[in-house]
Please model this.
Amino acid sequence: MKKTLVLFGKILKSNLVKNMYPYKLTFAVTYKCNSKCKTCGIWKKKSENELSINEVDKIFSKYNDFSWVDITGGEIFLRRDIVEIVKIIIQKCKNLYVLHFPTNGLLPEIIVEKTKQILRLNPKKLIVSVSLDGPREVNDKIRGVPGSFEKAVQTFSEIKKIKNRKLSVFFGFTLSRYNIGYFDKMVEEVKKTLPWIKYNDFHMNIMHGSTHYYHNKTVEFPAKRVISEVKGFMEKRKLVLNPVSYIEKIYLKLIKKYLITKKTPLPCKALSVSCFIDPYGFVYPCSIMDEKAGSLRDNSYDLKKIFNSEKSKEIIKKIRRGQCPMCWTPCEAYQTILGNLTRL
Model:
């Protein structure tokens, strides 16, 4: 109950004050990846000198006020010490309410076993999203690895079998020009293996470009087709009364406004309620804006020192003036929605 109340308090504060320390972190622990996606260029990076387990410990020993942590990559399970990293985060962040990580599902046995190990660390809430971007042929073409569809479905199925009330697992679908019009066909193909699957077992987001993170170019969408696809998805999902479903519904609803205006639909909260740390310890306001707030290695692994810096203050002012790339990716949108409840 305490962790729930602490998170609720931070969300409320983010609606009332302009300046606060981030309670939400997106932490890219590696850029190594065994997929070769058309929608993302992370796998092309030569990722070296990534933060060590000792450095990770120093970071969370000095700043442990995160209630919400997304651990991402690359493929996080290519780090052999991923369970140790999660252990540090759970032990240091005493008010951690939700831990989330995505996976491409290409290593089913390792992913399932390490997910079980993470659950034994007793997180308050663990959400796992397994990437799936279309029916078999489309998905494997986008992801650049034959058999990706089959392994992703296997990984999802095996994680779903884990009996733990703290665990939720979903398929994560990234809508791009490569898979518009294929969502329903994907669901039907998954049903051939998992007859019980429902639309509520899928999360949808739209592809983004980011030079420092995704290592790709600016994304252009056929807006009308994307809006239609998102609308169809929303209509097929059942109404579920829980916070995650509420936030996702608002996120999906505002995609239309984002694509029409090409502007973030709500005042962005990046670097004031959330931040992004890359595998080398560089702190960014988010996964999209390519402007470093500082280096943890150059600042004694002290996040608060970076948050209090003139550089961070300058970046926050730029974001508030709309001088940023303008995005609507869930990594940044969800906490922005929660920080603008009076505008919904």
Observations:
- The first helix runs from residue 2 to 16.
- The first strand starts at residue 24 and ends at 28.
